[in-house]
Every structure is written in structure tokens, then in C-alpha cells.
Design goal:
alpha/beta, Four Helix Bundle (Hemerythrin (Met), subunit A), 2 domains, three-stranded antiparallel β-sheet
Length: 280
């Protein structure tokens, strides 16, 4: 389970950072079925596998926090292998619940600030953003939501399909370069959060030009996500993905760069909403 989860995270087959943290935490349950002679042997294996999962995507603050929380809770505490396994099982359940509860609370806080008749623009794929919109719609708000394609992986299409299934939501898709066209009709941009650290907001590539364009047009930008994604002592590492996502057949003399994330000064974001409420 751990090896498969690492491969899935590295391949970015799970598109939500919160979902990545949940899957990684649940993958540690594999250790419950392994045999250990001593507590030290168990703890070394736990630290090794938590580290492997953490490094599978060093850009995800929620993943980093989840693995660190498991390690902090367990290492040095149990007095027997049986106790260690029981503590791991309990910790996995608690950490997963904390992640999902925090995400739901952040979405609920954001939904309160979405008004009936609003036109929103969203980018990429964020389960927290989707949950915010769905909560607002279920509360009676009629919304128009523009979705950018989010190239090169076009994850916006996945978002559009989810929005199309929601009552009272009129989903519309535009290519990334048409963001200026769509923003002129929008009341707000609603974005997810990959990480906020050191005064910088990191999110899927395409976020920075979207934020700059929104500010130029006077459209407020809101970022929503679990408070666990706001972390001070964390070195964000961008990921550069395979060039084939951009161009299937290479061209001689052309170097293709395919970064996964954008860095945006957090001061350019009008509102940051977490499970604690409005942070900024």
C-alpha cells in the first residue's frame, strides 16, 4: 500500500492536496500487518516510511504536517510493539479525521461569503473549493462558475464535471488564456491552497497570472483551505513534470519547462479562509 501510494502521489493521480495527505496517512496502516521484534524496530520503520511518503511530494504542506504529526505522536511513546500498533491505528484515524474536518470547516467558512447570484472563477481542481460552492448552492444560492482548463493537465475539466452535477450551479469553461474575458463578469476568484509559507502563497501553475489579472480588473481573490496548509518552517519545492504533458513530440532545440506550481505574494490575495475563519 505504501509503495503504491508513493507512486500515485508522484504521478499526481490524486489531484487534491488534502486527499493526498489522507491517502498517505492511511497507507501507514500497512505497518500494522508487519512483524516487529522490538519497539525500536517498529519506530525506525515508521519514520522511514513516513519520510518516504513525505518526500513523495515535498510541495504539499498538508502531507508534510500529517506525516510529522504521526511521527510526533508515536515515536518514543509505546512500551511494546502491541501498544505501538494500537497507537498507530488510533493516530491514523485521528489525523485523517482532523484533515477532513478542517477541510469541511474551511469550506463552510468560505460558503458563508458566497452570495446568491454571484459569478465565480475557479482554477485547477480543489475539493475544498468544490465543497464551498456546493455548500453555498445547497443553502439556496444560484451561482455561475467559470472554470479554467488548467493546462497542461486540464484538471479544470474534472472540476467542470463536478460543478455540472450541482443543482443551482451554471458551470462554464474557458481556456486559461481567456481568464481576462471571464473575469470581467466575475464577482470573485475562489482558489484552493497548496501551501502558504514565508509570505508566499503556492498553488497550481497559472495561479499567479490569474491573481495579477484579477487585481488589475478589481476582482477580489479568495484562497480557501485547511489551516494545516499554512506553515512557517517549510521549504517549498516546486515540481517540474514531464515535458510530454506540454508537447507529445519533442522539437530539436526547444527546452520545455513544465512547473507544477506558481508562487504568489500572499499580500496579493484579498482573503485567506481556513477552518479557523478568515486569516487575512
Amino acid at each position: 500500500m505504501i509503495d503504491e501510494t508513493v507512486a500515485e502521489i508522484r504521478a499526481m493521480r490524486t489531484h487534491s492536496t488534502s486527499a493526498v495527505a489522507v491517502k498517505a496517512t492511511q497507507a501507514l496502516a500497512e505497518l500494522l500487518d508487519r512483524d516487529y521484534r522490538t519497539v525500536d524496530e517498529f519506530e525506525r520503520d515508521l519514520e522511514h516510511n513516513a519520510g518516504v511518503l513525505r518526500r513523495s511530494n515535498p510541495s504539499h504542506a498538508a502531507l508534510h504536517n500529517a506525516m510529522r504529526e504521526v511521527e510526533r505522536t508515536i515515536v518514543g511513546e509505546p512500551t511494546s510493539v502491541e501498544d505501538a500498533k494500537q497507537l498507530l491505528e488510533e493516530t491514523i484515524e485521528r489525523v485523517v479525521d482532523d484533515i477532513e474536518t478542517s477541510k469541511a470547516a474551511a469550506a463552510a467558512n468560505a460558503a458563508e461569503r458566497i452570495n446568491d447570484g454571484d459569478t465565480l472563477l475557479v482554477h485547477d481542481y480543489s475539493t475544498t473549493v468544490l465543497e464551498s460552492i456546493e455548500a453555498a448552492a445547497m443553502a439556496g444560492a444560484h451561482l455561475t462558475v467559470y472554470v479554467t482548463e488548467a493546462r497542461p493537465r486540464t484538471l479544470g475539466r474534472k472540476t467542470a464535471r463536478a460543478l455540472a452535477a450541482m443543482d443551482r450551479v451554471d458551470a462554464r469553461m474557458v481556456v486559461d488564456s481567456a481568464m481576462g474575458y471571464a473575469l470581467r463578469d466575475c464577482d470573485r476568484v475562489l482558489l484552493g491552497i497548496t501551501c502558504i509559507t514565508g509570505g508566499t502563497y503556492y498553488n497550481r501553475v497559472g495561479t499567479f497570472p490569474l491573481v495579477v489579472t484579477a487585481r488589475e480588473l478589481g476582482v477580489p481573490v479568495t484562497a480557501v483551505g485547511s489551516g494545516a496548509k499554512t506553515i512557517e518552517e517549510f521549504r517549498f519545492e516546486n515540481e517540474f513534470r514531464d515535458a510530454v504533458e506540454v508537447m507529445r513530440e519533442p522539437v530539436e532545440g526547444v527546452t520545455i519547462e513544465n512547473p507544477s506550481y506558481d508562487a504568489t505574494p500572499v499580500g496579493m490575495i484579498d482573503t485567506v479562509i481556513t477552518d479557523d475563519g478568515v486569516r487575512y
